[in-house]
Input
Amino acid sequence: MQTKIPLIKYRSKDPANLHLGIIEIEGEVIHRIEDLEAFYKTFGYTDDLVKAGKLPDDFIWEAYVTNSAVNCAPCFQLHMIEYLIMHSTAFLKKYREQYDDWIATHAQARSANGKLCDLCKAKRREEIIYSHNKSTQL
Output
């Protein structure tokens, strides 16, 4: 049986408060972003990109949406779930039973299409290095 996964979206401006962003699941606001810097870092937006003058929404658009060479919608959804797990008690309460399945399904889709965003590539390198260091310590 295939897991039904809703599309998790964010808007960088909350219509009710111009300083905050929101995250929606199937049209319902599940989280109001209080720290945009922490949110954007979840997707790989770094201080170097800030210094280079790259706007965070432009970075996300280019990294996860428009550039087909690196486009990885499952990566974007995985990072969104990762952020929500760390920052949203409402998400945890409402979707605790489902988010593990969503993570597994997105990870499988990401592996199937063979594409990884730069952040996933970096995390994979860290996992390989950690795994190698751990095995050499035995």
Remarks:
- The two ends are 40 Å apart (CA to CA).
- Residues 8-137 form one domain.
- The helical segments are 36-41, 47-51, 56-66, 73-87, 89-95, 99-113, 118-137.
- Residues 128-138 have pLDDT under 50 and may be disordered.
